[in-house]
Design brief:
Blueprint lengths: L1 E7 L15 H16 L6 E4 L3 H14 L7 E2 L8 H8 L13 H16 L10 H16 L5 E6 L1 H12 L5 H6 L7 E7 L2 E9 L8 H4 L4
Parallel strand pairs: 1-4, 2-3, 2-4
Antiparallel strand pairs: 1-5, 5-6
């Protein structure tokens, strides 16, 4: 039985012109996670990321924290986040969006939750991708990761893709994906175990690098 460890990227740059890069705290989080994974004896024999900068930077921080050479990462587009900014804009093509939709955390995530539910029901015209396309590429990434003879895989992805992977594994209704995504922490670890014939969720949203003395600094959600 093999193990797939999927890490959500560290804190990105919410509200900035370029969200797709780690904040200074995000770099610290990724290194702290790497150190914790090393203590746990994690030694992946295959690594993968999505195409986004925050995925690559998180993996680089993990490697520094582990003090290990993890080798070249396989790039899987199915691990990319859905384009939440474009999706939100597609819901309000003629204006009327809530003030602060893109830069106020509370407004952003409340509006995103409702928008994703509408997206799942195919109620948004001209989204950046259809819900079925998003779910399909996440599944394609899962199949690619499970192919081959590997003992332990480490992948870095985003909250939406990881939550969909969990929801699909458990066979939940589509709206459960967003409930999972909204509780996912930065640098959280989700683990799966699998064989050629079966794929199981083993743990969800773990933060082995966060303990009482550093939680106030390191625990973030976006």
């Amino acid at each position: 039985m093999a193990e797939l460890i999927v890490v959500r990227h560290a804190q990105a740059s919410f509200g900035a012109a370029n969200y797709d890069k780690l904040s200074p705290l995000g770099h610290e989080q990724s290194e702290e996670l790497g150190a914790a994974l090393a203590v746990m004896g994690i030694r992946p024999d295959r690594v993968a990321t999505g195409e986004q900068v925050r995925h690559r930077e998180t993996l680089e921080g993990i490697a520094r924290g582990m003090k290990a050479e993890l080798g070249p990462a396989e790039i899987l587009p199915g691990l990319n986040e859905f384009d939440f900014r474009a999706l939100l804009d597609a819901r309000f093509p003629e204006g009327g969006a809530p003030e602060g939709m893109h830069d106020d955390r509370r407004t952003h995530f409340r509006t995103l939750r409702d928008t994703v539910h509408a997206w799942q029901r195919d109620e948004i015209a001209n989204p950046p991708e259809r819900w079925a396309e998003f779910a399909g590429r996440v599944e394609a990434a899962r199949q690619a990761l499970c192919a081959g003879d590997h003992r332990q895989l480490l992948a870095v992805s985003s909250g939406g893709a990881i939550s969909q992977l969990v929801a699909a594994t458990l066979g939940t209704p589509p709206e459960q994906q967003m409930a999972l995504q909204l509780q996912m922490k930065n640098c959280a670890v989700t683990r799966f175990v699998f064989t050629p014939r079966a794929f199981y969720l083993h743990s969800f949203n773990e933060t082995p690098h966060i303990v009482a003395h550093n939680a106030e600094r390191l625990l973030t959600y976006s």
